[in-house]
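BURP domain-containing protein (Panicum virgatum), 378 aa
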Amino acid sequence: MARLLHSATISIFVLLVVGRCSNAVLTEAEVFWRTALPDSPLPDPIVKLLHPETSSVVNKQPKDDDTVAEAYSLTWLMWGLRSPSAPTTKHSNTAAETSLVNKPKDDDTAAEAFSLTWLMWGLRSPSAPPKQPSSPSRPSRAGRDHSADEYLAKGLFFHEDLVQVGKTLTLYFPVAASAPLGLLPRRVADAIPFSASSLPATLARLGIANDSAQATAMEETLYMCELPQKAGEAAKFCATSLEALVEGSMAALGTRRIRPVTSGLPRSGAPKQPYTVRAVHPVDGASFVSCHDHDYPYTVYMCHNTPSTRAYMVELEGARSGLAVTVAAICHADTSSWNAEHVSFRILGTKPGGAPVCHYLPYGHNLWVNMEANRSSS
């Protein structure tokens, strides 16, 4: 043990010296990453979150309730749930489609990422609305219009038989999620209360108005994090620091030998269009941990393991723009526990327990792979 600690101390010292000599200031989280995952490069989305001062995208926030309503839609859908009742959206189907295709304005940066998460979880939210902090001025959740959900979902879900060279997928890539403060150092993140019951104190601490759209988004994040894991999941957790993200994924996969998989997408997003599959690379493994970054003043990842799942890295080329991207795609082979009313079944014409449901990982989301399982199966 003493030898291990001595080796780790030397490694950290060397990393710090190298960082300074190369004019790169390493954060504590980057030092942790290089020590814990020496064979895995730090994904670009995480680098941007560790240095938010260099990013214009992550420094943007939603400014009105309509923007946050679209954000709820994407987040709920990515977790495979249906949004319970976020602030009422003001646009019709046509308006929703127009605003999404033409890309959000500055105040819309975080809009889509929030509800993408719910789309990927495979359940419908409880009928009871989330518990709210004691505030009569909190924006109402009643009357949620789900018209935008289905439009966004049509650019997210697809059949597994389309994951073949030469096939065409119609996809929509949203703007990177908003996190003005980026990934906080662990000691800072751990010092901020992270629970629905402590939200009023957290809002006061961060200087966020209790009746703001950001406060409502934070409430929704906490509600999601406090939901129990669904049937078939062996693990579910929320991480508020890079260290918690990595250690939580290691614990969920039962090994320290893990590696991240992310999509190579533009942070500014891209409008919905057909993409031709140019190459497909299966990702070894049958169980993964998926982590979705969420709209919050600082980065929060919501993670869950995904058993009975196949994963691919898919190279795509846009039919209209010629945009070349590589996306991480996940295909859920067992959807028997998903709610029958989930939008993916309506879009794909399937039902719970039927054909696999596939979706890609948007910018900033990550998939964790068990390298031990891959090695033993080879």
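The chain has 13 helices and eleven strands. The mean pLDDT is 75. ok done for today
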